[in-house]
Design brief:
The complex is a heterodimer of chains A (214) and B (218).
Chain A (H helix, E strand, L loop, with lengths): L2 H37 L5 H14 L2 H11 L9 H26 L3 H9 L4 H31 L11 H12 L3 H31 L4
Helix pairs in contact in A: 1-2, 1-4, 1-6, 1-7, 1-8, 2-4, 3-4, 4-6, 6-8, 7-8
Chain B lengths: L1 H8 L1 H34 L3 H16 L2 H11 L9 H27 L2 H9 L4 H32 L10 H12 L2 H33 L2
Helix pairs in contact in B: 2-3, 2-5, 2-7, 2-8, 3-5, 4-5, 5-7, 7-9, 8-9
The chains are: A mainly alpha (214), B mainly alpha (218).
């Protein structure tokens, strides 16, 4: 393995990280929206969200990526590998985030809502001032967990030809006929990415404890 | 509709894939739970060196994406002189990877159990394997049941990754049909529905265990 090989795997790391971040930036708020739809029991849409979450949560990411990349052109929507990958990853992470937010909403104490009602806060203010500041704190561990899971499921997009860490390592391995060193290098990169997020989570938790939120 | 008829004509391939996926899940599920049960007492045990080693293994597995681990086993092990068929490598990867997760969640269950169970087991003279087998296993499994159910679904989803090393599982077979007849939508939709059905069946099985567990929870 020469310097260029290391460099190419590191370039794959940029794809891995940016794909996960883009899908999470869309997926986390969207998941909250879907969770609110189920929580507020909006007729028809709540069943739609539930069906979506159930199907996506049981579908392997690889199969979802293949479905989106190869099947959408049949309906006249032809996506490049990159948008297809972002779409697949976003669809899957949204479903998981929806469940994380929903469990926080379900456990939200009802008396606080009643109190907010009694004080005459409208729906939006109740959400913004009472509910949201509390549920994001209780959802944070679950969301960080989902972030690391998401980073670990990005290799699924390699099947449609996106060169992220795993595929870059596989390429280097098949060029040099020595598969072990690039894989071990890839392993180190993944570990350090996951490590950074775990540290970040710990930092947030300590911050919140110091401020007395939890 | 025509597309689905093509898939129906290749029902034997779909069936092979389905059976292979099911065998892989059951094998990986049972083996990883058993191995996890063996590793858990080492994780919480008093032997510090052994506990650190097992913890290193568990943490390493939890940092690696499954796909990379599959490549590591399938392409990396031959460098060390161990050559496996794709099916064996895939099954091995599934078992080793998920054992770490099972050990971790069983450890959580062990720590949550009231210490009186362990202490009363000890005072009745149980030690070592006897203590694990007769006293700890059942309450641990009952406690960890919901998480084990989640992990089994994770195994199902991980098994789809094995298509990259040409294990003849569900995604692989349907991808094969798809690329021969250019019917991606029908093929992958079939795969998705079959995965969903497997999930529902798994949840039913876990549900019946859950009923058993509910009666025995303190």
């Amino acid at each position: 393995m020469n310097a260029y090989d290391y460099y190419s795997i590191l370039q794959g790391a940029i794809f891995t990280v940016s794909l996960s971040i883009v899908s999470l930036v869309i997926g986390v708020p969207l998941g909250l929206g879907f969770a609110l739809i189920r929580w507020a029991k909006v007729p028809f849409f709540k069943d739609l969200v539930q069906a979506y979450v159930n199907v996506i949560r049981s579908c392997p990411t690889v199969t979802l990526v293949l479905l989106i990349y190869y099947a959408l052109p049949e309906f006249g929507v032809s996506l490049n590998p990159l948008p297809a990958a972002v779409l697949a990853l976003t669809l899957s992470t949204t479903a998981f985030n929806c469940e994380i937010w929903r469990s926080a909403l379900v456990e939200f104490p009802k008396d606080q809502l009643d109190a907010a009602h009694a004080l005459g806060l409208n729906r939006l203010m109740r959400m913004r001032l009472i509910v949201f500041p509390q549920i994001w704190r209780s959802s944070l561990p679950g969301i960080f967990n989902e972030i690391t899971l998401q980073i670990k499921s990005t290799p699924a997009v390699a099947v449609i030809g996106i060169v992220e860490i795993t595929r870059a390592a596989l390429r280097v391995g098949s060029n040099t006929y020595e598969p072990l060193p690039p894989f071990i290098f890839a392993l180190l990169i993944y570990s350090s990415i996951v490590f950074v997020f775990l540290k970040l989570q710990k930092y947030f938790e300590i911050q919140m404890k110091e401020k007395g939120y939890i | 509709m025509h597309d689905f008829l093509i898939i129906w004509a290749h029902i034997d391939l779909v069936f092979t894939g389905l059976i292979n996926t099911l065998i892989l899940i059951v094998l990986a599920g049972v083996m990883s739970i058993l191995l996890g049960l063996i590793l858990t007492p080492l994780l919480v045990g008093s032997n510090k060196a052994l506990a650190t080693m097992v913890q290193c293994y568990v943490d390493a597995m939890r940092c690696v994406p499954f796909l990379l681990f599959v490549y590591l086993i399938y392409f990396g092990l031959p460098t060390l002189g161990l050559r496996l068929s794709s099916w064996t490598a895939g099954a091995l990867a599934l078992v080793l990877y998920n054992t770490a997760y099972m050990a971790e969640l069983l450890r959580g269950a062990w720590l949550e159990l009231p210490p009186s169970i362990l202490e009363s087991g000890r005072s009745f003279g149980f030690t070592g394997w006897g203590l694990l087998r007769h006293i700890m296993v059942t309450p641990m499994l009952i406690r960890a049941l919901p998480m084990i159910g989640n992990q089994l679904i994770q195994i199902l989803k991980d098994s789809a990754f094995l298509t990259v090393i040409a294990v003849k599982e569900l995604t692989h077979e349907l991808n094969g049909i798809q690329s021969t007849y250019f019917i991606p939508f029908a093929a992958f939709l079939t795969a998705l529905i079959l995965y969903w059905i497997i999930c529902i069946l798994m949840e039913m099985v876990m549900g019946s265990f859950e009923q058993f567990a509910v009666l025995r929870r303190p």
